[in-house]
Amino acid sequence: MTTQPEISRAAIAIENQDYNIKIAKSGFLPSVSGSASLSTNFGFNLKNGLLNQSFFSQLNDNLGYGLGVSVGIPIFNRFQTKNRVDQALINKKIFESRLENEKLTLKQTIEQAFLDVRTALKTYEAAKISLDAQEEAFKNAQQRFNFGALSLFDFELVRTRLVNAQAAMIRSKYDYVFKTKVLQFYAGELELE
């Protein structure tokens, strides 16, 4: 559970939902905002083409400024804040169920990997027995062929069975090794680089 990224990702998603709940609940708190403004203007008489005052003098004389503070107290906002909080709580429950689902899926994957290892071991053991039997059959067939009691066709059939048994032995061996490594990975004993 501690080494798999799916579990960590699901746990982090729950933590994220905790923050989303706090953000949604902040809608119940009053808000304070401030503003400041600064303005000026300049005028020119187009009819006479004359300036009543100099440019900088007009800017200085027409200077205006303002400050503002507003306080918002949420009394009634059509239950929007309550709905946001409820939705955030529902989302948290969804992510909690996803975490449990990820844990269950991981458990099933590990159990399947364990069963795969057991099956691969049994297949490997059976392949060893089959190979031993085919090797013995090949020895007997070779002696019979040497004495002329076995045709070339029958001898080639026995040799083909031996080659197939050797191939099955190799496949089952590497399948067992691979499945053991998969189980070690899920157990946290094997790290990929």
Assign the structural class, choosing from mainly alpha, mainly beta, alpha/beta, alpha+beta, or little secondary structure: mainly alpha
According to CATH, the homologous superfamily is: Outer membrane efflux proteins (OEP)
CATH names the topology as: Outer membrane efflux proteins (OEP)
Query: Largest sheet, if any?
Result: 2 strands, antiparallel
CATH class: Mainly Alpha
Please name the CATH architecture. Up-down Bundle
Q: Helices and strands, in N-to-C order?
A: HEHEHH
Number of helices: 4
Give a structural overview.
It contains four helices and two strands. It starts with a helix and ends in a 6-residue tail after the last helix. The protein has helices spanning 5-25, 55-61, 80-146, 152-187, and strands at 31-39, 64-72. By secondary structure, it is mainly alpha-helical. The longest helix has 67 residues, at 80-146. A two-stranded antiparallel sheet has the order 1-2. It has a single domain (5-29, 74-187), classed as Outer membrane efflux proteins (OEP) (Up-down Bundle). α3 (80-146) packs antiparallel against α4.
